[in-house]
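Tip: read the tokens left to right.
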């Protein structure tokens, strides 16, 4: 499966979630998306969005200045 990357560094809430949703809508179930964020709220917001929409956060990695969130697209993508 192809790995995809979304760079939303420098964007503040709600833009990381909005951009994540737009990108996920372009992917097939089972594909993975790596999301690069600097907004600390995204570490809560993106997993919450995933739970509501049937996607899975498969890993997170917090760095000093940015966080990476890996999401697997679920079958419930709108």
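Filled-in amino acids:
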């Amino acid at each position: 499966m192809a790995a995809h990357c979304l760079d939303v560094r420098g964007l503040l809430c709600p833009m990381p979630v909005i951009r994540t949703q737009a990108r996920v809508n372009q992917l097939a179930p089972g594909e993975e998306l790596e999301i690069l964020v600097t907004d600390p709220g995204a570490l809560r917001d993106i997993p919450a969005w995933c739970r509501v929409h049937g996607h899975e956060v498969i890993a997170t990695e917090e760095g000093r200045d940015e966080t990476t969130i890996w999401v697997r697209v679920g079958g419930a993508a709108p």
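Residues 32 and 53 are 15 Å apart (CA to CA). The chain has a mean pLDDT of 93.
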